[in-house]
Amino acid sequence: MNKRLIDIKTVLFDYDGVIVKPDYNIEAWKRACLKFNLIMTNEDWYKHEGLKPEELANKILIKNNNILNITSKHLAEEKKVQFEFILKKTGFKIQLYEHVDSILSFLNYKKIKCGLVTGAIRSRVLKSVP
Questions:
Q1: Distance separating alpha carbons of residues 30 and 34, to the nearest angstrom
Q2: pLDDT of res. 47
Q3: What is the mean pLDDT of residues 13-25?
Q4: What is the per-residue DSSP string for the chain?
Q5: What is the C-alpha R_g of the chain?
């Protein structure tokens, strides 16, 4: 399909991994896992990116044979605590990918509506979006 820019009315962006670098998110998962002596790599996160926190936690627990009988809910809650800690430490400043500001400014200039779609927790997104 060859759409001209003038025909585009709306552009939707995903949050983690498209607009915002996932580094803090990955770091929070790693810290949560470390607290329970679990292993999670960047590859684990990227392979399961887009899952809800409890679903990702379940994948991590399965990979680690869940030897401590931790629930996915408990691990996901610890990840949330770690993420909040990281955001507070950084002054709630997110890491945008290069040129995101320019792209959004251009779309705004062209009067093209933009939307943000995400599986991330709403309160987290609202805290981090300027």
A1: 6
A2: 92
A3: 87
A4: ----GGG--EEEEETBTTTB-SHHHHHHHHHHHHHTT----HHHHHHHTTS-HHHHHHHHHHHTTTTT---HHHHHHHHHHHHHHHHHHTTT---BPTTHHHHHHHHHHTT-EEEEE-SS-HHHHHHH--
A5: 17
In the structure encoding, which two tokens stand for residue 38, read together? 């679990």
Paired tokens of 37: 């002596």
For residue 102, what pLDDT is reported? 93
The pTM of the whole model exceeds 0.85: no
Provide φ and ψ at 117, rounded to 5°.
Answer: -120, 140
Calculate helix-pair angle for 53-63, 23-35, nearest 10 degrees: 50
Q: What phi, psi does 11 have (nearest 5°)?
A: -125, 130
